[in-house]
Amino acid sequence: MAAPKKGRRPTGAQGRPGRALAVILIAMVALTAGMFLSKQTTPRLGIDLAGGTSITLKAKSEPGKENAVNETNMNTAVGIIERRVNGLGVSEAEVQTQGRDHIIVNIPKGTNEEQAREQVGTTAQLYFRPVLAYADGAPVAPEGTPSPSPSASGSDAPKTGDGKTTPSATPSSSATSQGRALSEALKAPAAPTPSPSASESKKADDKAPSPSASTPPTGDEAAAAALQAKFAALDCTDEAQRAAAGKGAKPEEPMLACGKRGNAWGKWVLGPAQVNGQDVKDAKGVIDPQRGQWIVTMQFTDKGADKFAKITGELATKQMPQNQFAIVLDGEVISDPSVSQALTGGNAEISGGFTQQSAQDLGNMLSYGALPLSFHEDSVTTVTAALGGEQLKAGLIAGAIGLLLVVIYLLVYYRGLAFVAIVSLMVSAILTYTIMALLGKAIGFALNLPAVCGAIVAIGITADSFIVYFERIRDEIREGRTLRPAVERAWPRARRTILVSDFVSFLAAAVLFIVTVGKVQGFAFTLGLTTVLDVVVVFLFTKPIMTLLARTNFFASGHPWSGLDPKRLGAKPPLRRSRRTAPAPVDAKEA
Fold first, then answer.
1. How many CB atoms lie within 10 A of CB 252?
2. Which residues contact 122 (CB under 8 A, 6 or more apart)?
3. What is the spatial distance between Cα 83 and Cα 295, in angstroms, rounded to a whole number?
4. Which of 60, 53, 46, 58 is nearest to 117 (CA)?
5. Distance between CA 93 and CA 87 in Å, rounded?
């Protein structure tokens, strides 16, 4: 008789179920411990369950760009605003269009709601403009003092103005040179250059794209005088004047602007924009390990790097404050670093007087501040969680009823096997809950009503996997096999069916997540997560536990309440209990 081949496991191989059960037990303990250590013991809730703020933004066309409000620009704006809000760590902030010219921003409660609302409101384009003149405004708080103006990298120490001028004065230029600088700005889109003398204007003419003249036209002088008068009269401590300061200014024109330096308001005369926010590739607030202070690093696009190198090279030759460039967002100066040398290479940093929060805020504005349209707040409403709470309660009741019906069906039809299915569902529920709680803190995942629906649908998907396996085991018993080999022989066939079914469900969830936005993504994400966990539970828990139960007398003997009774399943006697039983001796006794 030929010896059995080695190296190939027989069909009825039992495997090592203890290892699989140990793996899933360790995973459950680790996830539960991580949930408690992170102090995030419940999933974060979305705006429909937790409440929050809903902001409606209306797009407006710039003069001469009446066709700018279109589907392409609106979708671009939605993407940028969503990145800006989520860059603040706001979980499940919803940003979507409504109609032709409105964008709805929903910010859940319990996150950086106030901070997000402030930055969502500042939705106009971002520009880098050269500073022509600066004057201090009255401080917001009596005890506050203006902080130093930050500096762009190229100088270790921040460069500041003297901070002692009156609102109608310029710290480092006379009224005559200031007027000539403003006249030059009105004439050319390049960075304005003060012209104290005809000879210097002639030298500047070699560098500037537009001609410089020692005697500017009367129209430019009149415009400069009007701008100076507005600058002198501007009171940036007044909210209405601050809002109107740079309103309607085009990028190619000089403008007035207000902004804060520490707790003090300041006002600026700014030249035409040289770099816009779309030229900024990335920006973030980081701590400088050498100096131990917070800075903002900027990375420009290739085109933006050339623009930035050109303007910083021109500003580096000037005196304060005209060696500064102002970063203007929504008409307000958010920073005005000084420059001491040309900054080339496409990278720069801003340093001086930053806290961690202010550095990260500025980096976030620079990264996500460039929008193709201007917006204003049309309405701001507070969303309560009352309606969502009622819907959640109804959804949980529906889910509980569905789960109860599944359990009743399992008990009636599968009897003892229902124990395996129920415990498997409990393991799946523990894994799902702990992962959702951890994802809330890790990636900002928030549970909303569609996500709850996805979890309820997953009950049916998970139960379906158990039923497929149980029916394969019953088929093997109907063919006359005992339970232990039936459990192992049924697994390969059931495994293929379960994997194909779960793959289709996961693929549907992935496609739904990619092509949809907003709350529907919550449904798709939860459905995909629970589908993956279904595979994990069936492979690492349900199959091993069935292998162990097949060794017990209750299930192996085919007890009527085990759900695997051969007679009840219609198996034809005689049952093949052992392969070593020989028919010949039986025939001899009968004879």
1. 9
2. 329, 330, 332, 365, 369
3. 21
4. 53
5. 10
Run means of pLDDT, 10 residues per run, the chain, 591 residues: 48 66 93 88 78 81 67 76 63 73 78 60 70 71 42 42 31 44 50 39 42 48 80 84 77 87 84 85 84 86 89 87 84 84 84 78 69 74 69 79 85 88 91 89 78 84 88 88 89 92 92 79 89 93 92 87 82 54 50 43
> Per DSSP, what are the bridge partners of residue 284?
297
> What pLDDT was estimated at residue 25?
93
Greatest pairwise CA separation for the chain in angstroms: 134
Length of the chain: 591
Residue type, 192: P
- Spatial separation of the C-alpha atoms in residues 515 and 190, rounded to whole Å: 44
CA gap 435, 440 in Å, rounded: 9
| DSSP 8-state class, residue 327 | E
Residue with tokens 């009825």: 12
Two structure tokens written together for 312: 């910083």
Answer yes or no: are the C-beta atoms of 448 and 47 closer than 8 Å. yes
CA atoms within 13 A on the CB side of 195: 25
Evaluate the CA torsion angle 250, 265, 284, 298 in order and state its sign: positive
Phi first, then psi, for residue 340 (nearest 5°) are -115, -10
Tokens 């037990």 — which residue?
25
Phi-psi region of 298 (alpha: psi -120 to 50; beta: other; left: phi over 0): beta
